[in-house]
Amino acid sequence: MIEDTLDTLNTLAQEAQSQQRATAAAELSLRIATNRYQAGSVDYLNVASAQTIALENQRNGETIEARRLNASVRLLKALGGGWDRTALRDTAAAAQ
Given this model, what pLDDT does residue 94 score? Predict the structure, then answer.
């Protein structure tokens, strides 16, 4: 279980790096499409398509991050770690 979770975390870290590059490229494409639209060289459909792709890449990045957090929790549990819900509430109350 521990080895599998460590492998999962490693794989997700690699996915996160790839997704960050894809997100950056999509955001650059969106900026270019927006600039071209403002210059009058393309219609708004190009901007809308670029926005859709950029948003999809951002969502994928968030999904990968959620999977990484879940895998981290699984690793902590597998290692015998745990937490007390009352301690979490006390910490949250102190932060406010």
Answer: 77
The pLDDT of residue 7 is 93
Question: What's the predicted TM-score (pTM) here?
Answer: 0.76
Distance CA 30, CA 23 (A): 10
**Cα 37 to Cα 69: distance, rounded to the nearest angstrom:** 39
Q: Which residue has the tokens 């996915």?
A: 15
At residue 40, φ and ψ (nearest 5 deg) are 85, 10
Check residue 35 and report its DSSP letter: H
1-26 per-residue burial string, b: 16 or more CB within 10 A, e: under 16: eeeebeebbeebeebbeebeebbeeb
**Separation between Cα atoms, residue 5 and residue 2, nearest integer Å:** 5
Q: Is the pLDDT of residue 55 over 70?
A: yes
Alpha carbon distance 11, 15 (integer Å): 6
Number of H helices, E strands in the chain: 3, 0
